[in-house]
Amino acid sequence: MTYCVALRLKAGLVMLSDTRTNAGVDNVSRFRKMFTWSVPGERAVAMMTAGNLAVTQSVISQLEDAIADPSHEGDTVLSAPSIYRIAEIVGGLMQDAQQKWGAGVTAMSESIYATMLVAGQRAGGQPRLFMVYSAGNFIEATEDTPFFQLGEFKYGKPIIDRVITYDSTLEDGLTACLLSMDSTLRSNLSVGMPLDLAIVPADIFGFSENRRIEAEDANYRAMSDAWSASLREGFIKMREAPKWS
Asked: Is the previous residue joined to 40 through a cis bond, with omega within 30 degrees of 0?
């Protein structure tokens, strides 16, 4: 399975994904689910994927091929005039995949469903975040709902709901995403390390963070331990709260 989370804040974008795929207890694999592109000083774009791996890999491959092909006609991730246009391109490729393979895959009682998050900022525009569905349609994160999640989101959603608003800082956004992921890792074996992290501060048109967090990362482990200790301390303090009668 998958867990990906992305925040669209006034201060910029924060994106975090795991790398585990699971087709059963004896078939656990690791695949990258976050993909990034940038033109320093002009744009930074990140995408995260969930669902049918063949579909999402096909979409990413076609995006890469268009960039690499000098004869390609039309917009690419690196030339599109807006992040909205990039979401349209991804939606078109998702729709093409459904038309090409949908009937055959569903006939085998397999799911063709896939979802992608498209996030980024280009010069002249604002940080934007879109969720693209299998049918090719998509929605955009707003100030009222400044985050999207893919996959096994139920364990990590409460912390995001409680602490994140559009005005949250990037530091708070990063902490919330990491704690959200940590809660998911604790409760769902189909989500696993390592993690991929990308941060796009507003109006720098580039990544301040774009890296992998391994299972042995000391900072991540310290944060996880501190969060567990804080939860235990908070639970103990609840003994002092008014009792139900």
From this structure: no
C-beta neighbour count of 78 within 10 angstroms:
16
Mean pLDDT along residues 9-36: 87
Cα–Cα distance for residue pair 151/154, rounded to 1 Å: 9
Tokens standing for residue 11: 């201060």
Structural domains for the chain: 3-240 (3.60.20.10)
Distance CA 173, CA 179 (A): 10
DSSP labels for 187-205? H-TTS-S-EEEEEEETTT-
- Say if CB 199 and CB 13 are below 8 A apart: yes
C-alpha distances in Å from residue 144, one per residue of 11, 87, 118? 15, 20, 18
Pick the range with the lowest mean pLDDT from 72-81, 134-143, 184-193: 184-193
State the greatest distance between any 2 C-alpha atoms of the chain, in Å, as a whole number: 74
Which amino acid, residue 220?
Answer: Y
Distance CA 194, CA 29 (A): 12
Q: Report the Cα 11 to chain-centroid distance in Å.
A: 17
pTM: 0.95
User: What pLDDT shows up at residue 28?
Assistant: 73
63 phi/psi in degrees, rounded to 5:
-65, -45
Number of H helices, E strands in the chain: 5, 12
Name the strand (E) or helix (H) holding 147: strand 147-151
- The distance from CA 120 to its chain's CA centroid, rounded to whole angstroms, is 12
Q: Is the pLDDT of residue 187 over 60?
A: yes
